[in-house]
Amino acid sequence: MAKMSSDTIWELAAAEVRSQESGAGEGDGGETVCERSVFLMGSKTGGKTSILLRCLERDEPPKPTLALEYTFGRRAKGHNTPKDIAHLWELGGGTSLSDLVQIPITPNSIRSLSVVLVLDLSKPNALWGTMEKLLTAVQAHVEKVFSEAQKSKPGGKRQKAAHPAARVLPKDYPDRELISPFPVPLLIIGSKYDLFQDFDSEKKKVIRKTLRFLAHYYAASLIFTSIKSESLMSKTKSFFSHLAFGLDRGKTVSCDSGKPLIIPVGSDSFSQIGAPPSTDIDITSLHAKNPKDLWKKVYERVFPSESHIEQRELKDPAKDPQYSEPQIDAMRAQKDQELEQYKRNAAKSWKELQLET
Asked: 3-state class of 20 per DSSP?
Protein backbone atom coordinates (compact mmCIF):
# COMPACT_ATOMS: atom_id res chain seq x y z
CA MET A 1 0.00 0.00 0.00
CA ALA A 2 2.89 2.34 0.75
CA LYS A 3 4.19 1.94 -2.79
CA MET A 4 0.74 2.58 -4.26
CA SER A 5 0.40 5.87 -2.37
CA SER A 6 3.85 7.09 -3.42
CA ASP A 7 3.50 6.37 -7.15
CA THR A 8 2.03 8.97 -9.47
CA ILE A 9 -0.90 8.09 -11.71
CA TRP A 10 1.45 8.13 -14.73
CA GLU A 11 3.82 5.64 -13.10
CA LEU A 12 0.91 3.36 -12.26
CA ALA A 13 -0.38 3.60 -15.83
CA ALA A 14 3.08 2.85 -17.24
CA ALA A 15 3.38 -0.17 -14.97
CA GLU A 16 -0.01 -1.44 -16.15
CA VAL A 17 1.02 -1.11 -19.81
CA ARG A 18 4.28 -2.96 -19.16
CA SER A 19 2.33 -5.68 -17.38
CA GLN A 20 -0.06 -6.08 -20.32
CA GLU A 21 2.79 -6.12 -22.83
CA SER A 22 4.73 -8.74 -20.88
CA GLY A 23 1.60 -10.89 -20.75
CA ALA A 24 0.86 -10.52 -24.46
CA GLY A 25 0.44 -13.90 -26.07
CA GLU A 26 -0.57 -15.59 -22.81
CA GLY A 27 -4.16 -16.73 -22.82
CA ASP A 28 -6.58 -15.86 -25.60
CA GLY A 29 -5.05 -18.69 -27.61
CA GLY A 30 -1.69 -16.93 -27.79
CA GLU A 31 -3.17 -14.13 -29.95
CA THR A 32 -1.60 -10.70 -29.59
CA VAL A 33 -3.21 -7.34 -30.23
CA CYS A 34 -1.87 -5.54 -33.30
CA GLU A 35 -1.84 -1.74 -33.17
CA ARG A 36 -1.51 0.49 -36.22
CA SER A 37 -1.70 4.25 -36.72
CA VAL A 38 -3.36 6.01 -39.66
CA PHE A 39 -2.94 9.75 -40.23
CA LEU A 40 -5.58 11.45 -42.41
CA MET A 41 -4.91 14.85 -43.92
CA GLY A 42 -5.73 16.76 -47.07
CA SER A 43 -7.92 19.42 -48.64
CA LYS A 44 -9.92 21.65 -46.35
CA THR A 45 -13.62 20.62 -46.48
CA GLY A 46 -12.51 17.80 -48.77
CA GLY A 47 -14.61 15.16 -46.98
CA LYS A 48 -11.98 13.55 -44.72
CA THR A 49 -14.31 13.17 -41.75
CA SER A 50 -17.17 11.81 -43.85
CA ILE A 51 -14.88 9.25 -45.47
CA LEU A 52 -13.46 8.21 -42.10
CA LEU A 53 -16.91 7.77 -40.53
CA ARG A 54 -18.07 5.65 -43.47
CA CYS A 55 -14.96 3.48 -43.32
CA LEU A 56 -15.56 2.93 -39.60
CA GLU A 57 -19.28 2.27 -40.23
CA ARG A 58 -20.27 5.00 -37.79
CA ASP A 59 -23.71 6.43 -38.45
CA GLU A 60 -23.24 9.98 -37.20
CA PRO A 61 -23.17 13.39 -38.90
CA PRO A 62 -19.67 14.70 -39.70
CA LYS A 63 -18.49 17.81 -37.86
CA PRO A 64 -15.76 20.28 -38.86
CA THR A 65 -12.37 19.02 -37.67
CA LEU A 66 -10.86 21.34 -35.06
CA ALA A 67 -7.09 21.39 -35.66
CA LEU A 68 -6.13 17.75 -34.95
CA GLU A 69 -8.56 15.12 -33.76
CA TYR A 70 -8.07 11.55 -32.54
CA THR A 71 -10.33 8.53 -32.60
CA PHE A 72 -9.76 4.79 -32.85
CA GLY A 73 -11.16 1.71 -34.48
CA ARG A 74 -11.19 -1.90 -33.30
CA ARG A 75 -11.61 -5.13 -35.24
CA ALA A 76 -11.57 -8.72 -34.06
CA LYS A 77 -9.54 -11.26 -36.02
CA GLY A 78 -11.98 -13.99 -35.19
CA HIS A 79 -14.35 -15.35 -32.53
CA ASN A 80 -13.11 -14.89 -28.94
CA THR A 81 -9.86 -13.24 -30.04
CA PRO A 82 -8.43 -9.86 -28.99
CA LYS A 83 -9.38 -6.94 -31.20
CA ASP A 84 -6.74 -5.17 -33.26
CA ILE A 85 -6.61 -1.41 -32.68
CA ALA A 86 -6.19 1.39 -35.22
CA HIS A 87 -5.19 4.79 -33.84
CA LEU A 88 -6.72 7.35 -36.19
CA TRP A 89 -5.60 10.97 -36.42
CA GLU A 90 -7.25 13.60 -38.62
CA LEU A 91 -5.68 16.96 -39.44
CA GLY A 92 -8.08 19.84 -40.12
CA GLY A 93 -7.51 23.21 -41.76
CA GLY A 94 -6.05 22.00 -45.04
CA THR A 95 -2.40 23.08 -45.19
CA SER A 96 -2.59 25.84 -42.59
CA LEU A 97 -1.95 23.55 -39.61
CA SER A 98 0.75 21.35 -41.14
CA ASP A 99 3.02 21.98 -38.14
CA LEU A 100 0.76 19.63 -36.14
CA VAL A 101 2.03 16.58 -38.05
CA GLN A 102 4.59 16.15 -35.27
CA ILE A 103 1.89 15.03 -32.82
CA PRO A 104 0.78 11.74 -34.45
CA ILE A 105 4.25 10.98 -35.85
CA THR A 106 6.27 9.72 -32.88
CA PRO A 107 8.95 7.09 -32.22
CA ASN A 108 6.19 4.80 -30.92
CA SER A 109 3.86 5.16 -33.91
CA ILE A 110 6.34 5.46 -36.77
CA ARG A 111 6.87 1.76 -37.51
CA SER A 112 3.15 1.06 -37.88
CA LEU A 113 2.17 4.40 -39.42
CA SER A 114 0.28 4.93 -42.69
CA VAL A 115 -0.82 8.18 -44.27
CA VAL A 116 -4.07 8.91 -46.12
CA LEU A 117 -4.05 12.07 -48.26
CA VAL A 118 -7.53 13.24 -49.29
CA LEU A 119 -7.53 15.63 -52.26
CA ASP A 120 -10.70 17.43 -53.32
CA LEU A 121 -11.15 16.74 -57.04
CA SER A 122 -13.68 19.56 -57.31
CA LYS A 123 -10.99 22.16 -56.43
CA PRO A 124 -8.13 21.36 -58.82
CA ASN A 125 -6.39 24.73 -58.41
CA ALA A 126 -5.55 23.94 -54.79
CA LEU A 127 -4.75 20.27 -55.40
CA TRP A 128 -1.00 20.35 -56.13
CA GLY A 129 -0.21 22.89 -53.40
CA THR A 130 -2.14 20.89 -50.81
CA MET A 131 -0.42 17.66 -51.79
CA GLU A 132 3.06 19.20 -51.87
CA LYS A 133 2.94 21.05 -48.56
CA LEU A 134 1.38 18.23 -46.53
CA LEU A 135 3.53 15.42 -47.90
CA THR A 136 6.68 17.53 -47.48
CA ALA A 137 5.77 18.27 -43.85
CA VAL A 138 5.08 14.60 -43.06
CA GLN A 139 8.18 13.34 -44.85
CA ALA A 140 10.43 15.84 -43.07
CA HIS A 141 9.11 14.86 -39.65
CA VAL A 142 9.27 11.13 -40.37
CA GLU A 143 12.92 11.54 -41.34
CA LYS A 144 13.55 13.60 -38.19
CA VAL A 145 11.99 10.97 -35.91
CA PHE A 146 14.01 8.16 -37.50
CA SER A 147 17.21 10.21 -37.32
CA GLU A 148 16.72 10.95 -33.63
CA ALA A 149 15.93 7.30 -32.95
CA GLN A 150 19.20 6.24 -34.62
CA LYS A 151 21.23 8.75 -32.60
CA SER A 152 19.66 7.61 -29.34
CA LYS A 153 20.90 4.05 -29.86
CA PRO A 154 24.22 3.07 -28.24
CA GLY A 155 26.89 3.87 -30.80
CA GLY A 156 24.17 5.14 -33.12
CA LYS A 157 26.52 7.57 -34.88
CA ARG A 158 28.98 4.83 -35.71
CA GLN A 159 26.41 2.31 -36.95
CA LYS A 160 25.61 2.29 -40.64
CA ALA A 161 22.51 0.14 -40.62
CA ALA A 162 19.96 0.48 -43.39
CA HIS A 163 17.89 3.61 -42.91
CA PRO A 164 14.68 2.41 -41.24
CA ALA A 165 12.65 5.02 -43.11
CA ALA A 166 13.43 3.45 -46.47
CA ARG A 167 10.57 1.31 -47.77
CA VAL A 168 11.82 -1.89 -49.32
CA LEU A 169 10.18 -2.40 -52.71
CA PRO A 170 10.34 -5.65 -54.69
CA LYS A 171 13.15 -5.81 -57.23
CA ASP A 172 10.62 -6.06 -60.05
CA TYR A 173 8.63 -3.01 -58.87
CA PRO A 174 7.76 -0.86 -61.94
CA ASP A 175 10.24 2.02 -62.48
CA ARG A 176 11.95 1.17 -59.19
CA GLU A 177 15.01 3.30 -60.00
CA LEU A 178 13.01 6.32 -61.16
CA ILE A 179 10.58 6.86 -58.28
CA SER A 180 10.90 8.31 -54.78
CA PRO A 181 8.83 6.08 -52.43
CA PHE A 182 7.14 7.86 -49.54
CA PRO A 183 8.79 6.70 -46.29
CA VAL A 184 5.56 5.17 -44.95
CA PRO A 185 2.63 3.52 -46.78
CA LEU A 186 0.55 6.18 -48.52
CA LEU A 187 -3.00 6.18 -49.88
CA ILE A 188 -4.17 9.09 -52.04
CA ILE A 189 -7.95 9.54 -52.17
CA GLY A 190 -9.51 11.81 -54.78
CA SER A 191 -12.76 12.89 -53.12
CA LYS A 192 -15.99 14.34 -54.56
CA TYR A 193 -15.80 12.29 -57.75
CA ASP A 194 -19.47 13.09 -58.37
CA LEU A 195 -18.57 16.77 -58.91
CA PHE A 196 -15.41 15.93 -60.84
CA GLN A 197 -17.47 14.06 -63.45
CA ASP A 198 -19.00 17.33 -64.65
CA PHE A 199 -15.61 18.82 -65.59
CA ASP A 200 -14.44 19.37 -69.15
CA SER A 201 -12.90 16.18 -70.54
CA GLU A 202 -9.48 17.75 -71.15
CA LYS A 203 -9.31 19.10 -67.60
CA LYS A 204 -10.30 15.72 -66.21
CA LYS A 205 -7.52 14.15 -68.27
CA VAL A 206 -4.93 16.50 -66.75
CA ILE A 207 -6.08 15.78 -63.19
CA ARG A 208 -6.28 12.01 -63.70
CA LYS A 209 -2.86 11.68 -65.31
CA THR A 210 -1.21 14.00 -62.79
CA LEU A 211 -2.56 12.06 -59.81
CA ARG A 212 -1.51 8.79 -61.42
CA PHE A 213 1.99 10.18 -61.84
CA LEU A 214 2.15 11.38 -58.22
CA ALA A 215 0.82 8.10 -56.81
CA HIS A 216 3.33 6.06 -58.82
CA TYR A 217 6.19 8.47 -58.01
CA TYR A 218 5.53 8.09 -54.26
CA ALA A 219 4.74 4.34 -54.47
CA ALA A 220 1.24 5.05 -53.21
CA SER A 221 -2.21 3.62 -53.85
CA LEU A 222 -4.77 5.84 -55.56
CA ILE A 223 -8.56 5.76 -55.55
CA PHE A 224 -11.28 8.20 -56.63
CA THR A 225 -14.37 8.16 -54.45
CA SER A 226 -17.62 9.87 -53.52
CA ILE A 227 -19.67 9.51 -50.36
CA LYS A 228 -22.71 9.45 -52.66
CA SER A 229 -21.59 6.15 -54.21
CA GLU A 230 -21.95 2.99 -52.13
CA SER A 231 -19.79 1.05 -54.59
CA LEU A 232 -16.89 3.52 -54.47
CA MET A 233 -17.12 3.86 -50.68
CA SER A 234 -16.99 0.08 -50.34
CA LYS A 235 -13.76 -0.02 -52.36
CA THR A 236 -12.39 2.95 -50.38
CA LYS A 237 -13.14 1.12 -47.15
CA SER A 238 -11.14 -1.87 -48.40
CA PHE A 239 -8.09 0.33 -48.99
CA PHE A 240 -8.54 2.00 -45.60
CA SER A 241 -8.99 -1.32 -43.75
CA HIS A 242 -5.83 -2.61 -45.40
CA LEU A 243 -3.85 0.21 -43.76
CA ALA A 244 -5.73 0.23 -40.45
CA PHE A 245 -6.11 -3.52 -39.83
CA GLY A 246 -3.99 -5.31 -42.43
CA LEU A 247 -7.00 -6.70 -44.33
CA ASP A 248 -6.98 -7.60 -48.02
CA ARG A 249 -7.66 -4.50 -50.14
CA GLY A 250 -8.92 -6.48 -53.13
CA LYS A 251 -7.47 -6.84 -56.61
CA THR A 252 -9.60 -4.35 -58.52
CA VAL A 253 -7.60 -2.10 -60.86
CA SER A 254 -9.21 0.63 -62.97
CA CYS A 255 -7.22 3.05 -65.14
CA ASP A 256 -9.89 3.58 -67.79
CA SER A 257 -10.83 7.11 -68.73
CA GLY A 258 -14.41 7.84 -67.85
CA LYS A 259 -14.26 5.61 -64.79
CA PRO A 260 -13.02 6.36 -61.27
CA LEU A 261 -9.37 5.48 -60.79
CA ILE A 262 -8.65 2.49 -58.55
CA ILE A 263 -4.92 1.74 -58.61
CA PRO A 264 -3.31 -0.29 -55.80
CA VAL A 265 0.36 0.43 -55.14
CA GLY A 266 2.61 -1.21 -57.74
CA SER A 267 -0.14 -1.55 -60.37
CA ASP A 268 0.88 1.39 -62.56
CA SER A 269 3.95 2.48 -64.51
CA PHE A 270 5.29 5.56 -66.23
CA SER A 271 4.92 3.87 -69.62
CA GLN A 272 1.18 3.34 -68.98
CA ILE A 273 0.71 6.87 -67.63
CA GLY A 274 2.50 8.52 -70.55
CA ALA A 275 3.83 12.06 -70.89
CA PRO A 276 2.27 15.10 -69.23
CA PRO A 277 -0.83 16.25 -71.15
CA SER A 278 0.61 19.36 -72.80
CA THR A 279 -1.40 19.98 -75.96
CA ASP A 280 -0.94 23.76 -75.80
CA ILE A 281 2.43 23.83 -74.03
CA ASP A 282 5.96 23.43 -75.32
CA ILE A 283 7.45 21.19 -72.61
CA THR A 284 11.02 22.13 -73.57
CA SER A 285 10.30 25.74 -72.65
CA LEU A 286 9.36 24.94 -69.04
CA HIS A 287 12.95 24.41 -67.79
CA ALA A 288 11.97 21.71 -65.28
CA LYS A 289 14.55 20.41 -62.78
CA ASN A 290 13.18 16.85 -62.73
CA PRO A 291 10.11 14.85 -63.88
CA LYS A 292 8.04 15.86 -60.84
CA ASP A 293 8.83 19.53 -61.44
CA LEU A 294 7.83 19.13 -65.10
CA TRP A 295 4.46 17.65 -64.16
CA LYS A 296 3.93 20.48 -61.65
CA LYS A 297 4.63 23.16 -64.27
CA VAL A 298 2.31 21.54 -66.80
CA TYR A 299 -0.43 21.06 -64.20
CA GLU A 300 -0.23 24.63 -62.91
CA ARG A 301 -0.41 26.00 -66.47
CA VAL A 302 -3.89 24.49 -66.61
CA PHE A 303 -4.80 25.01 -62.94
CA PRO A 304 -2.89 28.02 -61.52
CA SER A 305 -2.09 27.47 -57.84
CA GLU A 306 -4.32 28.98 -55.17
CA SER A 307 -2.32 27.59 -52.26
CA HIS A 308 -1.28 31.08 -51.10
CA ILE A 309 -4.94 31.90 -50.46
CA GLU A 310 -5.36 28.91 -48.14
CA GLN A 311 -2.12 29.69 -46.32
CA ARG A 312 -3.47 33.13 -45.38
CA GLU A 313 -6.89 31.78 -44.55
CA LEU A 314 -6.34 30.65 -40.99
CA LYS A 315 -3.88 33.24 -39.72
CA ASP A 316 -6.81 34.18 -37.45
CA PRO A 317 -8.97 31.07 -36.86
CA ALA A 318 -11.61 33.30 -35.22
CA LYS A 319 -12.44 34.60 -38.71
CA ASP A 320 -12.75 31.15 -40.28
CA PRO A 321 -16.37 30.79 -41.55
CA GLN A 322 -16.56 27.08 -40.67
CA TYR A 323 -16.35 27.99 -36.96
CA SER A 324 -18.88 30.85 -37.14
CA GLU A 325 -21.16 31.58 -34.17
CA PRO A 326 -23.47 34.52 -35.05
CA GLN A 327 -24.06 35.79 -31.48
CA ILE A 328 -20.43 35.44 -30.45
CA ASP A 329 -19.17 36.90 -33.73
CA ALA A 330 -21.49 39.94 -33.33
CA MET A 331 -20.23 40.54 -29.80
CA ARG A 332 -16.63 40.10 -31.00
CA ALA A 333 -17.19 42.67 -33.77
CA GLN A 334 -18.60 45.12 -31.22
CA LYS A 335 -15.63 44.62 -28.90
CA ASP A 336 -13.22 45.05 -31.82
CA GLN A 337 -14.85 48.39 -32.64
CA GLU A 338 -14.63 49.47 -28.99
CA LEU A 339 -10.97 48.48 -28.93
CA GLU A 340 -10.21 50.50 -32.06
CA GLN A 341 -12.01 53.52 -30.59
CA TYR A 342 -10.04 53.15 -27.36
CA LYS A 343 -6.77 53.01 -29.33
CA ARG A 344 -7.67 56.21 -31.22
CA ASN A 345 -8.61 58.02 -28.02
CA ALA A 346 -5.46 56.82 -26.28
CA ALA A 347 -3.29 57.96 -29.19
CA LYS A 348 -5.01 61.36 -29.23
CA SER A 349 -4.52 61.80 -25.49
CA TRP A 350 -0.86 60.87 -25.77
CA LYS A 351 -0.29 63.42 -28.56
CA GLU A 352 -1.98 66.16 -26.50
CA LEU A 353 0.17 65.24 -23.51
CA GLN A 354 3.32 65.53 -25.63
CA LEU A 355 2.25 68.97 -26.87
CA GLU A 356 1.65 70.25 -23.34
CA THR A 357 5.12 69.19 -22.20
From this structure: helix
